[in-house]
Write a structure and sequence with these properties.
This protein has eight helices and eight strands. The chain has helices at about 20-40, 65-70, 90-110, 130-140, 165-180, 205-210, 240-250, 265-275; strands spanning about 10-15, 40-45, 80-85, 115, 150-155, 185-190, 220-225, 255-260. A four-stranded parallel beta sheet has the order 2-1-3-4, with helices on both faces. A four-stranded parallel beta sheet has the order 6-5-7-8, with helices on one face.
Length: about 280
């Protein structure tokens, strides 16, 4: 891929990265969609991992990582670059990783102009309900008019050693409960995994524990995926699916549906497009 000076900023849609082709393909698709929505140049560039995927698994369009892209000599120093974070929230570890890559690049190419766009969820942002609105629509897709009882919703994220991630998830869970108060019985925030130790109790409860609660048995349950892209955790045959299958095996009265991922939801795509438009 060759870049040119262009007439506007080069936007790099950046996620954490994965060695699974489905994740890289989804990120590339999102970048193309955002380019079509905005008329701007948008390219996929993960923080790590994705460059290890064989190109033949990606329709011979190799995935590139952020550092590799920023070092591309075909990007002139005069081209303005905006990193577009494709993460659910402004989480400490992710921010540090992005900033670390930018610092390393500027040490090698001090003439580059690199800016980091706002995240989808910012604590002081104006559009704080964007994630909840997208999740609510995903949940509604799984509510059946034939159900005689209202469903319990379990909003599950990966689980992080940093409290801010759980705070974002819990905040969105509260918004979701308010949005769906007449449509579901309850909204329970949960994590896919957590580190050992009392100092990480803020991550609780775990999904595997919630699914075994007596209150969920015999009534509809919807696992709302608080994930953007498919991968090892939320993709096909991923960790969340395995946790669900194990709970269903242990609890015959558990009736579970799982929502689609959030990354291709029109609400989030348009939110990203609005962020792009704010730079041009």
């Amino acid at each position: 891929m060759k870049f040119s000076e262009g007439e506007g900023p080069l936007f790099l849609l950046t996620d954490n990265g994965s060695i699974r082709s489905a994740s890289a393909l989804a990120l590339q698709s999102a970048a193309r969609d955002l380019a079509e929505r905005t008329g701007c140049t948008v390219e996929a560039a993960s923080l790590a991992h994705s460059d290890r995927i064989p190109p033949e698994e990606l329709n011979h369009r190799p995935a590139r990582i952020l550092k590799q892209t920023l070092l591309d000599p075909s990007i002139p120093d005069s081209r303005s670059i905006v990193i577009l974070p494709f993460f659910l929230g402004n989480r400490g570890a992710i921010v540090l990783m992005v900033e670390k890559v930018v610092a390393e690049i500027l040490a090698e190419r001090p003439g580059l102009s690199i800016r980091i766009a706002p995240f989808l969820f910012e604590e002081d942002g104006e559009n704080q309900d964007v994630l909840a609105r997208a999740v609510a629509e995903r949940v509604r897709e799984q509510i059946s008019p034939e159900d005689s009882q209202k469903a319990n919703v379990v909003l599950v994220d990966h689980g992080s050693p940093r409290p801010v991630a759980a705070q974002v998830r819990n905040f969105v869970a509260g918004q979701l409960q308010a949005m769906l108060k007449k449509e579901v019985r309850s909204v329970i925030p949960a994590s896919m995994e957590r580190r050992e130790g009392k100092q990480y109790a803020f991550t609780d409860p775990l999904l595997e524990e919630v699914l075994r609660r007596p209150v969920l048995q015999g009534r509809p349950t919807i696992i709302a995926l608080f994930f953007l892209l498919p991968g090892r955790h939320a993709g096909e045959s991923g960790d969340v699916a395995e946790i669900r299958e194990a709970a269903e095996a242990d609890c015959p009265e558990l009736h579970v549906k799982t929502t689609a991922l959030l990354g291709d939801h029109p609400i989030l795509r348009e939110a990203l497009a609005e962020i792009i438009r704010s730079f041009v």
